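Person: I keep going back and forth on a fold encoding question. Show me how you would write down a chain together with its backbone fold. Please set it down just below, with no commentary around it:
Helper:
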Amino acid sequence: MTETPLNRLALISVLAGAVTGLLVAGLNYAIVLTEELVYGTNHLITLDPGSAVSPARLAVSLIVVGFITSWAWYLLGRFGRPMVSVPGAMQGRRMPTVETLLSVFIQVISVAAGAPVGRENAPRLAGGLSATSIASWFRLDLHSRRIVIASAAGAGLAASFHLPLAGALFTLELLLVEMSTRTVVTAMLTSATAVATTGLFITPHPIYHTVPLTEDFHNVVAAVIVGFLAGMAGHWFGIAARAAAAARPLDWRILWQMPLAFCGVAVAAYLIPGVSANGRWAADTIFTIGLPLGTLCVLGIARVMMVLICFRVGTVGGTLTPAFSLGAIIGAIIGLLIDPLFPQVPLGACALMGAAAFLSTTMAAPMFGMIAAIEFTDMQAQGYLPMFVAVVAAALAVRLWGILTDKDQRMQPFTTATWTRDTTDHTPRHDKS
């Protein structure tokens, strides 16, 4: 089959982006409706919808969520066709429409109701599903099909969080691992179209408050320290998250393991504010007013434990916002410890640099981690240099750890393939350095 011309591929990209944007708008509406049902408010109005109800009601809601989602995942796995990940679809396999749609809605509803994992896995799947059908309709050659499906998956993430550039970079850096005119044009067109389409239905809103950050010498030096330490922590968290997801139950055991785990999350959420949901409240609070050192340590440990436990018992989701939140916590802890040396560096700046560094190594994607942090906070251009330095320091930290331990530190990117049963779904391996 001859290669699809670029002009035709561009038109198909716009169509894939539009369909992806519509699906993501539907997912976002499901999130808002679920939050309204559970909390009486939503994340468009309240930074932390869970804070709108009493701790007791929040705990009960989490227990109910654990019970319902355990049965939802069990029934889908028991009676549904095997799921196909985005990397699997890129290899030419067909994604089951009904099962994929059920999966993405279960994911976003459980996260909206308080599951402490990320929701970006669902829109990526939705984008991949839309592009799979479109690629078949237009009879694209295998290479063009691969590009369009990867671009739509990245566009789904972009549309869900209003991150057009980060979504395109996710496609190029994590899924395609390829940079050419065809891939760049397709990824950016699809991402921009999806973001614009979703924006017609869901008004874009800032995910996190802007953090003042400049190219001051003290900020750059602090970026090296924060990036190095937070980057290593993110790498270890990424390893643990992948191991937990790989060990999840795929049979009837999910019916008791998931409810039991969510009982633990409920107890933690009752005692420690900010443990449930995706961690947006914790990160934004640190960026704006800060938190005491003791609170940061307790919250960080609790969130790591809850995220890993939920992955281990079969909760399907992502690591984007949980990793960003954990990075902000670790960055703030480091910022407080080095404050006597760098009193000129704001705590929020350390938190944001830590978030970018932690996210970049957790996702095994330095460029994506940096740009996602910038777009999340609508950062001004004068803050780009310390962010860049923090992410580079994170990558070098992982590389140095590999040299010291004499082990290869490469990791599979955290994509939808993490959650499929098909062990043949792999994306190209690439070095985190």
DSSP finds 16 helices and no strands in the chain. Confidence is low (pLDDT under 50) at residues 423-433. The two ends are 37 Å apart (CA to CA). The first helix runs from residue 6 to 39.
